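FAQ

Q: What does a record look like?
A: Structure on top, sequence underneath. For example:
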């Protein structure tokens, strides 16, 4: 089932479950109002699993020898369950009914009692149950809807809403024995068991055997539907006696599923005792114990010995379970209960100590001074002075406690500063990754860590270095570039955990991702990103203390990854420059040969013209910021000289310092501009060794649109008009760069608001891709130069003019063509035409320049 169909199925089933709950609420209210206006039995009865226990008795029942806890067996010779279903509303005022009752301690008695008149029932526990239990059902349904609203369409909220809706329906039906309430109860109970099994096998962790055998849930739902159907058919064919006989089977089925749910949850918690699911499992366990244990105890007492109060009163705290599960679903990063408990205990102990010292001082003062004076003014003054004396100590102790619980955060800030300073001077990739491992293991107290880097051919992430205890096969783990883990690291651009793949639609991909975490036995994978490129990943194990990774640790890991990405890219650039210096002649010959093979159709005049434009563009782009920085340095020298002159007043020194700060800030902007130009040049000359592969261009465009989603949220409408395309043999990574460049240019042209239409069509042995926006368009004079290197219509500082030129070159090297169609005021359309199979000149592993946006 594709993602769209899955989302629709979840919405439909969720709506059906909510409608069932609303229907049950209507039936329950109608039954309650109907029963309130008719005569009733002279005692209060609660029923479950075929047992009918008397909870409260009226005066006539007491006189007849009935006591709370007795079991009601029959009424007028009809079994109690059948009588309540068929004749419970047929009582006649003044007519005596015959009740067969079994005492708790043995023996039976027959009581002849008239019914209570309409409105004559005043049993407190029964009225409390009839009013409070439906209210719990309303809370159940509200919790399920709120969680679904906050996390719509996801797997966990869906299972939670199904469970909340069916349980709410059952709670609405816990009330008077008025047809068709008992029948609807028997139909709903199996559904409650099935939805509970669904929820417990989804949250907090999905067992591996459920992932491999997804039909298990379907089998449970099918068996529940079958049992409900059997009860309904038995009621229609055999009457109330047949449906009553099936009630114990229904209850046993539900109890068995509930027991299985608890076993599954405890087993998964033991398996992942130190993982992310621990906190979620703890909160869920607390809610389950608080909700189910009182209910199980109450039902056991009801079935075995009877009770003086209805067992349904145990449902008053039943909403704690869905509330705890809903909290865990909405707040995926739960607070650390142990840390909160420790800090609270520390503050409590300190407060108690200071209060004791204060009381001791007051007592001593009262004993010393009370003999000589009993003036109230003196007592008030002394109390005020005592408070002033103890307040500094209270503040100091509070600071010590805060510093104690904040020591890890201070250590993290110090570690970030030290790493930033150290990595500036590192030009060895091995030295950089070793520094990363030291920071992760020593500073954060992590058991073990491993650094993966993208190999030279950009084909896979391979283990570069590791620290801690690892198995021999762990350092041989290779993640291909097309692995779901790699794609998610690149597209999500944040740290990943095992639980992040719970929503993966494809069960095989979900299991592959989970297998990586289980094989490495790590808690997080942190991407090392430089711009839009994925350089590697940091695999982080669990903390030695057993605590989970909190927000501070995650922020430190993200900062560490960002710092290391810059250092790694600098080291690679240094290595490239060194290699170029050592092998300059060989590289020139190699590049010349490649240009002859790939660009043999270009005449020499075009080569020289492009080279002249490239040199002129670079000189012009570099000259402005460098000249600006040079002028600032001259002014900076003058200001520094003024600071060093004697006799300069404080006010003048402040003005000079402010001027120096502004000069440095502007100079930094100039150097950032130079850095960007150099980066564009490196992207222009970088080689891509990715293998030719068969790719779906519709999927590749969707992947690029997903990466740009934050950019598109500001008001740009995306229209996808996809045709059925055959797979195209190409360098998918290079074409992704082309798509991204075209999409970003369209966003810039529309200034954040507009409509962008992407159209794909198959044309025989070719495919055509159109990217059309409704921006201001381009004049014919500019459109004729738009693919020239360094030509751009953007303001200074917004672009280098390399993107479309490189994109055009990539498309041509694939044997295709790229054209632009635009008119001022009517938008712009870029058309790309690609062959299904590239020319023979495009060899496996050929070096091709990447597109840089």
């Amino acid at each position: 089932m594709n993602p769209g169909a899955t989302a629709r199925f979840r919405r439909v089933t969720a709506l059906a479950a909510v409608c069932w709950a609303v229907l049950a609420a209507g039936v329950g209210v109608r039954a309650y109002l109907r029963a309130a206006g008719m005569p009733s039995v002279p005692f209060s009865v609660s029923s479950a699993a075929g047992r009918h226990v008397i909870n409260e008795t009226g005066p006539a029942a007491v006189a007849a020898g009935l006591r709370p806890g007795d079991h009601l067996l029959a009424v007028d010779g009809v079994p109690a369950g059948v009588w309540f279903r068929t004749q419970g509303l047929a009582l006649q005022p003044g007519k005596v009914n015959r009740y067969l009752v079994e005492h708790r301690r043995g023996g039976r008695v027959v009581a002849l009692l008239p019914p209570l008149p309409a409105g004559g029932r005043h049993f407190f526990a029964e009225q409390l149950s009839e009013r409070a239990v439906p209210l719990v059902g309303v809370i159940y349904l509200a919790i399920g809807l709120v969680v679904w609203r906050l996390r719509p369409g996801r797997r966990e909220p869906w299972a939670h809403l199904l469970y909340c809706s069916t349980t709410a329906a059952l709670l609405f039906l816990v009330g008077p024995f008025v047809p068709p309430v008992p029948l609807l109860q028997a139909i709903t109970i199996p559904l409650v068991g099935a939805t509970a099994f669904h929820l417990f096998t989804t949250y907090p962790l999905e067992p591996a055997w459920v992932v491999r055998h997804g039909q298990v849930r379907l089998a449970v739902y099918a068996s529940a539907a079958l049992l409900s159907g059997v009860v309904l058919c038995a009621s229609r064919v055999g009457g109330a006696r047949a449906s009553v006989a099936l009630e114990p089977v229904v209850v046993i089925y539900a109890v068995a599923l509930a027991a299985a749910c608890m076993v599954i949850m405890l087993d998964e918690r033991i398996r992942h005792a130190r993982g992310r699911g621990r906190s979620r499992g703890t909160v869920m366990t607390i809610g389950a114990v608080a909700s189910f244990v009182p209910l199980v105890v109450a039902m056991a007492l009801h079935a075995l010995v009877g009770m003086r109060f209805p067992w349904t009163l145990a449902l008053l705290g039943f909403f704690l379970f869905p509330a705890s599960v809903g909290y865990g679903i909405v707040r995926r990063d739960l607070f650390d209960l142990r840390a909160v408990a420790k800090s609270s205990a520390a503050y409590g102990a300190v407060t108690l100590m200071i209060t004791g010292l204060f009381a001791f001082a007051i007592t001593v003062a009262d004993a010393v001074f009370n003999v000589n004076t009993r003036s109230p003014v003196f007592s008030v003054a002394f109390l005020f002075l005592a408070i002033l004396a103890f307040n500094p100590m209270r503040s100091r102790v509070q600071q010590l406690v805060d510093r104690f619980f904040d020591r890890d955060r201070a250590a993290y800030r110090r570690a970030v500063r030290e790493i930033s300073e150290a990595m500036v001077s590192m030009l060895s990739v091995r030295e950089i990754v070793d520094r990363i491992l030291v920071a992760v293991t020593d500073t954060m107290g992590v058991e073990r860590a491993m650094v993966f880097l993208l190999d030279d051919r950009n084909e896979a992430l391979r283990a570069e270095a590791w620290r801690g205890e690892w198995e021999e096969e762990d350092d041989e783990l290779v993640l291909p570039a097309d692995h779901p883990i790699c794609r998610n690291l690149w597209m999500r651009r944040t740290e990943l955990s095992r639980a992040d793949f719970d929503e993966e639609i494809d069960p095989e991909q979900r299991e592959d991702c989970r297998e990586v975490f289980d094989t490495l036995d790590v808690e997080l994978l942190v991407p090392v990103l430089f711009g839009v490129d994925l350089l590697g990943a940091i695999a982080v194990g669990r903390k030695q203390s057993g605590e989970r990774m909190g927000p501070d640790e995650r922020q430190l890991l993200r900062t560490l990854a960002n710092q290391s990405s810059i250092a790694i890219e600098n080291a690679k650039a240094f290595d490239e420059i060194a290699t170029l210096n050592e092998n300059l002649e060989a590289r020139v010959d190699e590049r010349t040969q490649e240009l002859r093979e790939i660009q043999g159709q270009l005449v020499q005049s075009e080569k020289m013209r492009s080279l002249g434009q490239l040199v002129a563009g670079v000189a012009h782009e570099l000259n402005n910021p460098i000249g600006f920085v040079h002028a600032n340095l001259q002014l900076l020298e003058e200001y520094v000289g003024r600071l060093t002159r004697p006799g300069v007043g404080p006010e003048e020194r402040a003005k000079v310092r402010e001027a120096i700060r502004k000069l440095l800030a502007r100079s930094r902007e100039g150097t950032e501009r130079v850095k960007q130009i150099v980066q564009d040049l490196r992207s222009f000359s970088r080689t891509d060794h990715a293998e030719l592969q068969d790719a779906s261009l519709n999927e590749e465009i969707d992947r690029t649109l997903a990466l740009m989603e934050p950019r598109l949220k500001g008001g740009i409408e995306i229209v996808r008009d996809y045709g059925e395309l055959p797979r195209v043999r190409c360098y998918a990574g290079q074409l992704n760069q082309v798509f991204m460049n075209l999409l970003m240019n369209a966003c810039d042209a529309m200034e954040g608001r507009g409509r962008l239409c992407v159209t794909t069509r198959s044309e025989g042995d070719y495919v055509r891709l159109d990217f059309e926006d409704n921006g201001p368009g381009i004049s014919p004079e500019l459109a004729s130069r738009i693919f020239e290197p360094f030509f751009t219509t953007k303001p200074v500082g917004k672009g280098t003019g390399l993107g479309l030129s490189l994109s055009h070159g990539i498309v041509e090297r694939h044997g295709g063509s790229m054209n632009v169609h635009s008119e001022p005021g009517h938008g712009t359309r870029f058309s790309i035409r690609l062959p299904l199979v590239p020319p023979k000149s495009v060899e496996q592993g050929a070096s091709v320049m990447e597109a840089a946006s």
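Q: Is there anything notable about this one?
A: The chain is about 60% helix and 15% strand.
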